[in-house]
Amino acid sequence: MNEIVVDSFGKVNLALDVLYKRDDGYHEINTIMQQIDLKDTVTLRDRKKGIKIECNDKDVPLDHTNLVYKAWEKIVNKTGINRGIHIIIQKRIPVSAGLAGGSSNAAAVFKGLNILWNLKLSEEELMKMGLQIGADVPFCITGGTAWAKGIGEKLTKIKSFSNNMILLTNIGVPVSTAHVYDNLDLYNKEKVADIEKIVRYIEEDNIVKVATSMTNVLEGFVIKEYPIIKEIKKDMIEYGALGSIMSGSGPTVFGIFDDEKKLYNCKEMLEKKVEKVIVTRTI
């Protein structure tokens, strides 16, 4: 085998709270992460030496700053294997959008190289390496539905929240996660996310209560910079979403629907306002 193709799925946060800034500069968070079927495709091809990265999206860096480069580097350093790789990323997940696109691509490289090069590394070993390059990478390796603490690496699998209809909107402006966290006023948060309550609703299969309880404490700051986010959330609710919040550090906004007709009516309306409107599902 000298080539492997790996699906690279995005994620949304069904709830996100930021507790405090740690001594290492990271923020302690409490969140529920949910994989979605919106995906990039990552193709890995053997080459004699070094790394070559290609991508169909001009906004994706093709050098050492890309997390897929860092993933390859971690694998090589850990195993001592002397092989190059050609990585081709077919992007569908919007960039810098709060959907873990870059982290998911890195996770795909970890998983793909493990198979392609027959490394026999455990999922735990891959997750440990993944954490060294990005807080969302361990979740992207495991996927599904998870309650995450720490900087996102302390993962507890919870009951699957799969096969629920999601409408994503992205305003087409990349938002820096570091910029959002650095400007968050932890002492004057407008909201607090009740994570435990939402976990309970997921376990009860109560989609309505999950959707109406969703909270993201980062919204307040991002909405000040991009007021359209508040408008999109309002539009989604008016057009039948059970609940709507921003994912991660934004600026992507998503709504959970239980009525397909309402979802597509909402999509049609939002396409007149927003650059990217995407129908997806939880997986």
Explain the layout of strands and helices:
Elements: E1 3-21, E2 27-47, E3 51-55, H1 67-79, E4 84-90, H2 101-116, H3 123-131, H4 137-142, E5 145-149, E6 154-157, E7 165-170, H5 177-182, H6 195-203, H7 207-213, H8 219-225, H9 228-238, E8 243-246, E9 253-257, H10 260-270, E10 276-281
Parallel strand pairs: 3-4
Antiparallel strand pairs: 1-2, 2-4, 2-5, 5-6, 7-9, 7-10, 8-9
Helix pairs in contact: 1-2, 2-3, 6-7
Q: In what range is the share of β-strand residues?
A: 25-35%
At the fold tier of CATH, the topology name of the largest domain is: Ribosomal Protein S5, domain 2
Structural class: alpha+beta
Radius of gyration over alpha carbons? Answer: 19 Å
- Sketch the topology as an H/E string, one letter per element: EEEHEHHHEEEHHHHHEEHE
Q: Which outline best applies? A: globular
The main pleated sheet reads as: 6 strands, mixed
Mean pLDDT across all residues, rounded?
94
How much helix, percentage-wise, in residues? 25-40%
The total of helices stands at 10
- Termini separation comes to 29 Å
How does CATH name the architecture of the largest domain? 2-Layer Sandwich
Q: Output the CATH class name of the largest domain.
A: Alpha Beta
Number of strand elements: 10
Instruction: Give the tally of structural domains.
Output: 2
Which blocks of ≥5 consecutive residues have pLDDT under 50? none
Descriptive report:
Strands 1, 2, 3, 4, 5 and 6 form a 6-stranded mixed β-sheet that branches. The protein has 283 residues and is of the alpha+beta class. The longest helix has 16 residues, at 101-116. The protein contains 10 helices and 10 strands. The radius of gyration is 19 Å and the shape is globular.
